[in-house]
Amino acid sequence: MQPFSKSLVQGNLKIKSRGSPRHYARLTGQVRYFTKLAAGRVVNISARGIALDLQSPLYAAAGSKVRVECDDIGLLDGFVRWAHNGRIGIEFDRSSNASAKVASYFRFFHKDIKPVLKR
C-alpha cells in the first residue's frame, strides 16, 4: 500500500490546516459568555486564536461569541471553535483589534516556554 501525501488527504477530507503556529504561554484569563464567567489558564496562543484550560465548566456551543479577559493582553473578542474536556478553543474575531493586541504581546512580552504538565 502506498502512503498518501498530506495535501491529497487534506484535499479529500476537506480538513483545514492550522493557519498560524501556536506558542505555549503561561497566562491567566477569564472567558465571558453572556453573563457566565469562567476563569482559566492560557494553554497556547497564536495570531488567530487562543486555547484555555478552564477551572469551571462553560456551556458555550461552537460558533458562540465570547470575550477573553486577560491582564497581559487585554480584552479579546472571538468565537468558540471547540470545547472539550475542560478546554476551550477560541478564534479571534477578525473585525476586532484582537490580532493587533496579540501581535503587540508577542513583540514585547512573550517568552518561549515549554509545558510542564500534559493531559
TrEMBL record:
<feature type="domain" description="PilZ">
    <location>
        <begin position="18"/>
        <end position="99"/>
    </location>
</feature>
<protein>
    <submittedName>
        <fullName>PilZ domain-containing protein</fullName>
    </submittedName>
</protein>
<dbReference type="Pfam" id="PF07238">
    <property type="entry name" value="PilZ"/>
</dbReference>
<dbReference type="GO" id="GO:0035438">
    <property type="term" value="F:cyclic-di-GMP binding"/>
</dbReference>
<dbReference type="InterPro" id="IPR009875">
    <property type="entry name" value="PilZ_domain"/>
</dbReference>
